[in-house]
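hey m, so remember when u said the C-alpha cells were messed up on ur end? i reran from scratch. heres the input so u can diff it against urs
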Amino acid sequence: MKKDAHDPSQSGENLETNPLFPSGEWEGFYTHEFGPQAHRHMMSFTLTFKNGTVSGSGLDDVAYFTWRGHYNTETLRCSLHKTYPSHTVFYDGHVDQNGIWGTWEIPLFSRGGFHLWPKGLSENLSLQDRADVPEFFKRPGLIM
C-alpha cells in the first residue's frame, strides 16, 4: 500500500503509541464459517490508529476496500467498517498480542470470523497463544 504524503493520517503526529495498535501494513483473513477447517480468505491492507479512530485501505478476494472505525486501548476492542464499492461489512474484534480477532457481519445476509495482524507477525499461533485467546472466542467452533 502506497502512503500518500498529502494525507494527514499518514503523518506521525498523534499516532497511537500502544504497541497493540501499530499503524502500518497489516494482513489477515476472514472466513464464512467458524473453526480451524474454515477456508481463509486472505487480505492485505494498511491501518492508521490515531486518537481512538482507525482508517485504512486494502485488497482482498472481493475487491479494493477502505476501513473506518474506532478502537479502545483500555477495553482492547476494535470496531471497523470495511467498505467495498458494492457493500459494507461490519467487523467487531478483541485485540491482543496476536492482532485483532472477532466476527464480521453483513446484516441479514452473512457472518463469519476474522483475524487481522501487523504484517510480519505470524498467523500461526502456539498452544500458549491459543490459551490466551479471550473467553469470547472459546465458544465451540469459534477459534480459527
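this time it looks ok to me. The first helix runs from residue 127 to 131. if urs says something different then somethings off w ur setup not the seq
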